[in-house]
Write a structure and sequence with these properties.
single chain; alpha/beta; UDP-n-acetylglucosamine1-carboxyvinyl-transferase, Chain; 2 domains; four-stranded mixed beta sheet; binds ligand EPZ
């Protein structure tokens, strides 16, 4: 298995280009199942999660080609409707094929999904939402067997214990585009990735209103057609590089980063004392003075994203004073805290909060990545630590960060991958 070796203490400087959003790419690729026509998606990042979704589409009879950052999906054998355990169990995003398959092919057999180990990740809201619009659901041998012959628009409430659900909204939204009649999704997620999905579906001919709000209305149409679409930039990748600049006391320009989708992070970084400037075509982040500790709570969009919680924690470990991070989406998403502890961080867990006492400097140690975002928290810690940090189990990083080492090296970091 590969490892990352990072020699810390170098200030990051320069420009980094932000890639297309992983969490927009996955539902949009799944949405191509809603049509028999050709779809072209641009700005698709090269990631193992994207490769997995492409394999799932091929398994479902689509013909898919990826050339650079452009993915073309064309019709093949549309009788296929089984998405197998071997593929679906490797990532959560794969559950997005359920709604489109049920709506377009009227039948789906989709394994229960897997994904990062960040606490319980039920799919009750996906199933409830689809049932509310008439999808017949049965569970058999670890598979969801869905029948879509009676799909009919309806009013769907999608709130759970932890607020709205991003991918449940995606699933119901996609299925509702081909339902008879009108659907209203209440307590819908309004993450930028859901908005991008709605924009894509509208280009395919779907009738959707209210995306970017907590009530999305869909008027079903008989068929959808192909289209060309460019994915939004990855706000979590951008946020990660902003935090990397902050933790190394650097000065980084994030080309293509979308300021509007990062307001919660920018607000907190400014409160901490970091200089964050919206510039033409990107964001510039510059460390100018010692940062102040923060009180951060993760929430559904437009709140502070849970997918930046671990990276923010890494920054707080070296920010003088007491910081508190409260995790309201995945209360158990703190595996990185103990690994940061190996590097000298002082973190007490009072779930769902973490209390962090900032120290002067982290020290290097062998650490292990546990999930995608926790892995980058360790990378950030390694970039700031004294000495050489060794991170194992880094395959998680390849799921969600395009060319991470190359991008960091271009900013001056001393980072390499070894077998
Ligand atoms: C998406 O996951 C993202 N994944 C996650 O990013 C992200 O952390 C999450 O949204 C929250 O922003 C993709 O887009 C592929 P949810 P999703 O359903 O949609 C509970 C990353 O690192 N819930 O919005 O699966 C759930 O347990 C990944 O890129 C139910 O109770 O998340 C959580 O507490 C990790 N029942 C909350 O809702 C359900 O049926 C929000 O989860 C579904 C979810």
């Amino acid at each position: 298995m590969d490892k990352l070796i990072i020699r810390g203490g170098i200030k990051l400087r320069g420009t980094v280009k932000i890639s297309g959003a992983k969490n927009a790419a996955l539902p949009l690729l799944a949405a191509t199942l809603l049509t028999d026509e050709k779809c072209v998606i641009k700005n698709v990042p090269t990631l193992t999660d994207v490769d997995t979704m492409i394999k799932i589409l091929i398994e479902l009879g689509k013909r898919v080609a990826k050339s650079g950052d452009v993915v073309t999906v064309e019709s093949g054998d549309d009788r296929k409707c089984r998405a197998p355990y071997e593929l679906i169990s490797t990532m959560r995003g794969s559950i997005c094929v359920l709604g489109p398959l049920a709506a377009k092919r009227k039948k789906a057999e989709v394994s229960f999904p897997g994904g990062c180990v960040i606490g319980p990740r039920p799919i009750d809201l996906h199933l409830k939402g689809l049932q509310d619009i008439g999808v017949d659901i049965k569970i058999k041998s670890g598979y969801i067997i869905a029948g879509g012959k009676k799909i009919k628009g309806s009013r769907v409430y999608l709130g759970g214990h932890f607020g709205s659900s991003v991918l449940a909204t995606a699933n119901v939204l996609m299925a509702a585009t081909l339902a008879k009649g009108k659907t209203a999704i209440e307590n819908a997620a309004c993450e930028p990735e859901i908005v991008d999905l709605a924009v894509f579906l509208k280009k395919m001919g779907a009738k959707i209103r209210g995306e970017a709000s907590h009530r999305i209305e869909v008027s079903g149409v008989r068929r959808l057609h192909g289209c060309t679409h460019r994915l939004i930039p990855d706000r979590i990748e951008a946020g990660t590089y902003m935090l990397a600049a902050a933790i190394t006391k650097g000065d980084v320009f994030l080309r293509n980063a979308a300021c509007d989708s990062l307001l919660a992070l920018i607000d907190k970084l400014k409160e901490s004392g970091l200089s964050v400037e919206r510039q033409r075509n990107g964001i510039r982040v510059k460390y100018t003075k010692p940062l102040k500790p923060l009180d951060v709570t993760t929430l559904p969009y437009p709140g502070f994203p849970t997918d930046l919680q671990a990276q923010m924690m890494a920054l707080m470990t070296v920010t003088k004073g007491i910081s508190v991070i409260t995790e309201k989406i995945y209360p158990e998403r703190f595996i990185h805290a103990s690994e940061l502890g190996r590097m000298g961080a002082s973190i007490v867990l009072e779930r769902p909060s973490a209390i962090i006492k900032g120290i002067k400097k982290l020290s290097s140690a062998p650490v292990m990545a546990s999930d995608l975002r926790a892995s980058t928290a360790l990378v950030l810690a390694g970039l700031a630590a004294k000495g050489t940090t060794e991170i194992s189990r880094i395959y998680h990083l390849d799921r969600g960060y395009e060319n991470l080492e190359a991008k960091l090296r271009a900013l001056g970091a001393d980072i390499k991958r070894v077998k």
